[in-house]
Protein 1
Amino acid sequence: MNEPLQWGAESLWQQLEPLLPGLSVEVVARSASTNTALLERARVRVEPATDELVQVRKSIESAAFGRRAADVQPCLLVAEHQTGGRGRMGRVWQSAAGASLTFSLSLPMNPTDWSGLSLAVGVALADALEPPGSTGKARIGLKWPNDLWLMDDGAEGAAPGRKLGGILIETVMAGPTRLAVVGIGLNVLPQPLEELSSGYACLQELNPAASAPWALVQVAAPLVRALREFERHGFAPFAERFAARDLLRGRAITTSQANLPEGVAQGVSPTGALRVQTGSGLHEVSSGEVSVRLDRGANAPDTESPASC
């Protein structure tokens, strides 16, 4: 029988609460989707003049979590096993208990421009898991707009790497406040998964002692600091670090945008839009509902490897 995971939630809360006053840290054995759970909490209506700590009513998770109503204060929700993780554009995400780190962080945010937020989050995660310069040439690459890959030194024309993690960011209005819910899925241990268009990589390849609780400790504080920096200054402080890990730059890609089926990626704009060179010139693509693939994977199935939110 596997030993129970030791998350150290109280210690993590003590570290993070000064950065996010009012924060709660919760670890649950199972959740369909941590992003959905936090979005639903934010939508719960509270009767006027009730205390903010009143137990959640009319919420599908109240029995499981017993949290405050109208939860618009910061919350870090970790699921040891996420059974219905969601990716962008309705894709299926796979995970296994103990082999993945799946969590969502909700917090009020009011940036001047939301553009490039997923890229900033990716930079924060990659730099936390592999500090710049710690391993020589960076092994964690960032695939626009929301994926982390483990880079391989393969033969020319071969896949540049395999998917290590994913990011799903959603927002919801909660009264006068817009709440950002940042969902993270990271592969930690090897898993026997099939039909993965982007391959499978895990943190144990970088650190043989890696575990899901270890990964959470590595990324939690850098993620919070990055979100606060993005709120103040936008994508600009992250642009150079993203460029250093840009997986797509200089590579032939295909997109799901009807008027831009293929081209060569040429980095990102100051606001984080993907720049694509085609025969008709240089175009910019905002993330939205656009899917971008390396040419070799254009016809691969829409099944993704890391657990998400």
Protein 2
Amino acid sequence: MPRVTIYSTRICPYCWRARSLLKRKGVAFEEIAVGRDPKQRAIMIERSGRHTVPQIFIDDLHIGGYDDMALLDDQGKLDPLLTT
């Protein structure tokens, strides 16, 4: 099963939605809190090219934020990425 990583903060509503979607699908994920960790935030920005949270990766593939992941799910493209 692919490794799913979410860079997030505790108060971000889109982070909550991303976690909820993955939990509904039964997908385990690693969550990296960047709210008070400048080093991890810098890693997130370097990996994704984005400054906002959440930033979601499936293995080394950058999915984007919650809206991007939800769109992939709506299009039926998320599940194949999660089961590869």
Protein 3
Amino acid sequence: MNNLLAALIFFTRLPFWRIKTVPSECFRHVVSYWSLAGWLTGGAMALVFFLAAWVFPLEAAVILALASRLLVTGALHEDGLADFFDGFGGGRDRESILRIMKDSHIGSYGVLGLIVYYLMAYTLLTSLPPEHIPFVLLCGDAFSKCVGSFVIKLLPYARKEKDSKAKVIYTPMTVGECVASILGGAIPLVFLPSFYGWALLCPVVCFFLLVSLFKYRLGGYTGDCCGALFLLCELGFWAGAVMVSRHLPFVMHLL
């Protein structure tokens, strides 16, 4: 329970810290509960979209849903994505990439990357059938966080602990923690129409491509890499969902 509470404290700005004081060691194990935290952040987006769609156009409801997660998380993942774009876009070698990503200032690659990311997110989500969007938001968040959590099983941390922004290095997941992560990502899928199952391949492909990039350029991962990994895997899921919905007759034939 302490590890889950630590994950909610770490990944959201909601006052879970008022419930109890969590031992600092628990924050080394939060990644395995990343997908469970996705129930909250993805659920918030789904709920906001559902309510907003009653009174606003589809496009406005999608924007409000995306904005709701920014408020819940304090743009934690987006900060990592911007640093990822800045570091990998402007860095020429491992040391320069790590130095740029640690800089709190955002550069041109980060700004442009976030603009392109949200243009893609908006376009993809508004292309889906409105009645499916809440389920895609919930399941995409939790499943992509589940997929992303396995980066700490495949790669070492790229910095020393004292150089970490959060001053914490995640501990590799145990078998039980792997199971918790998988369940957190899989359980919400029961709400997703079955034909969207094909879309689950896209975040997995994104994950392995990004992990290969991290390994090649950094020899490991950072916290910023984790944030970028989740958001880009989620974007991959949304892209997969759109491809499935646009070619539904063919997909149903396969099923």
Protein 4
Amino acid sequence: MEIILKYFPELSETQKAQFAALYDLYADWNSKINVISRKDITNLYEHHVLHSLGIAKVIRFKDGTEVMDLGTGGGFPGIPLAILFPETQFHLVDSIGKKVKVATEIAQSIGLKNVTTRHCRAEEEKRQFDFVVSRAVMPLPDLLKIVRKNIKKEQRNAFPNGLFCLKGGELGHEIMPVKHKAAVYDLKDYFKEEYFATKKVVYVTING
């Protein structure tokens, strides 16, 4: 948990308590439903929570912003971002029902009022949002095809509406088709841990 405070020292007492509660909740759920690799649960805060918050180093969502987390799994990046931005609405979507159940239960356990969840395939979700966030669920061009329908026209944030995606490794080939609309942010510029050496946030404007 200290690693979160190291990079986000301005948290309220409520936010600190919510982040602190995540470890026991995920450890408990993970023993029943595997949402995080068993050997990786001890790295929850660095590999999952802080990684999710990498998006917050690129954009600070304005109050009232609506965000869909596509392929949320057990709630990443949606739940850490929902803790950090309590006035932003997050809609967590995944095609695997038991993972959605974990995300739903954890959001309720820590008292998040700004999270909704849905068990469905991405193609089935027709609602519109300011942004979609995702953690490496599929290649970027495929993801963009699916989420284009979900992005609102009207703007309210400093960034034009679009997609924020957490990715790793060499992305040149993947980004090529959307290069003129994309920006890549290296997480190693924000977080000093070795884990983030090759991790990136990719932003693609969709209705800018």
